[in-house]
Amino acid sequence: MREITYRQALNEALDEELTRDRAVFVAGEDVAIYGGAYGVTADLWKKYGDDRVKDTPISESAIVGLGIGAALTGLRPVVEIMYIDFIPLALEQINNQAAKIRYMFGGKCKVPLTIRTEGGAGRTLGAHHSQSLEAWLIHIPGLKVVMPATPADAKGLLKSSIRDDNPVVFIEHKMLYNTKGPVPEEEYLVPIGRAEVKKPGRDVSIITYSRMLLFSLEAAVSLEKEGISAEVVDLRTLLPMDVESIVKTVKKTHRVVIVEEDCKTGGTGAEIGMTIMENAFDELDAPIKRVAGADVPMPKSPVLERLAIPDPERICQAVKEVLR
Amino acid sequence: MMDKTLAVQLLKQMMEIRQFEDKIMELLAKNVAEGGSHLYAGMEAVAVGAISALRTDDYITSTHRGHGHAIAKDGDLKALMAEILGRKTGVCKGKGGSLHLADVSKGNLGANGVVGGSIGLATGAGLSIKMKKTDQVVLCFFGDGATNQGIFYESLNIASLWQLPVIYICENNFYGMSVSVKRASAVQDLSKKALAFDMPAETVDGMDVLAVRESVSRRVNQARSGQGPSFIVANTYRYYGHSRSDPRVYRTREEEKFWRERDPIPNFSRKMIEQGILSQEEVTQLEEQVKQAIEEATEYAIDSPWPEPEELYTDLYA
User: CA–CA separation, A208 vs A216, rounded Å?
Assistant: First the structure.
């Protein structure tokens, strides 16, 4: 199969959906002429013009607001918030409006809105351009939250998100844009809400998502050399969470390490952990361990930044601890 | 000379809103209506005059003080009353309530519990219209308080930049809860706020239903013919406090009296009688008719069932 980057995969998804459905349009800061801060919307403006690929002012709240209004009245907007760190500027619109409108209005309307954004550390951009805020978003009933790790999942899930009749926050990772992977040439979709076992194993389950999948797979390879067989589960969607797949892997290995880049306190890992406690406690042979981001604003210095997020070595350590 | 059907429509809707709100106040006092409600009494001429300038396929967005907009946008009194009481038969199945009255099928994109919360939505509906190349328009209601919110500036900038068919109508009732415009806004003439976006703006007497209708009609025509957005400030007054727990210590009884003397309903009735368009009997009859309708709506709402427990989890996702 051909290999393309995560960035190209996303670009193809947007391109295909823009062609497929006249109701789809793209709007956000620097998405048109510039092609997106990370190049995801490159060349789309040339192909579709101002009417379908729109540069907006730097107005995050209004960008999401107009996406909601357009979605409510029959379009299928894909809006971009350049960094997840800017999501707080639009959080009122996401939390109070996008996620709640359908329910508040008694199910008599829909909000088919995709909010693309990008998060995570790794480029030493400091505290305002490196956060992982997904835990805030999974606390909002009515939203879907998608965080793909591979190019194939990125494309298939973005297409599914655009076609979904609900508001979806689609969170990319800045360190994944240049990663390459096999992506089918023919049309395909990846369903929202389904995890995938990216590497089967016997002894322990590493449950993770987004960039931490890559670190977890790296850790699994080193563990294999030491005779430890780790199963790596990529959640891909955080909301709704695939409880069934989580329970399944716990029943198989009976030991769990959760790997997440966001801050540990009140983080996504806590939700995954309690999901296991509520659904598969009797299957556990050891306490669950979290390898998570440090509870600090992301520091600039590359040395400190590396310490603030999980790495393969610490994942290996945690695995060995739950196997003890 | 004015069309009689229109005169009846305007007067009837204003009466419906006034009596609806008086009834809600009564139900709140008796604890039949739980929670709170922000009442529109006093401001009827704005919603009725403005929405009368629209076609049925045009959109509105509303505010936390949204009963008047919902009624004027072809709202069903029974379904609205039931919604405010949280009943299954409510327009939002009892899941929205006073703060979230909406009926997208009738072009009402919803009231909003957040001040300024719907200004972005209205702008998006305008974008939708422009992209679909229909000649609909959006009427975006908000209060004086919302003109101090960030999304107001973000949205009006985009609407003017992209020439969207949105009429932004500020219902200036001079208070954001208890804080007067004098104490909240550096600019007292709120219409000046549109200058920053090169957007045409005007101020209208919001107690005069025909003045509001005339001004909005003109702006609607401009928007429909591709001349972009506009900003209208309608000066008006809410008779009740911000909500039921409000003792109104921030304003004087003299000020309230001043505005009540300019009440849009008797003033419009008088004018119609003077011009020979309606007779006193017809006005009295209309009032009785509305009273009956409000009583029926109230009875319907009170007799309506509560939502079933299993409805807690329905309607979350499409």
Answer: 8
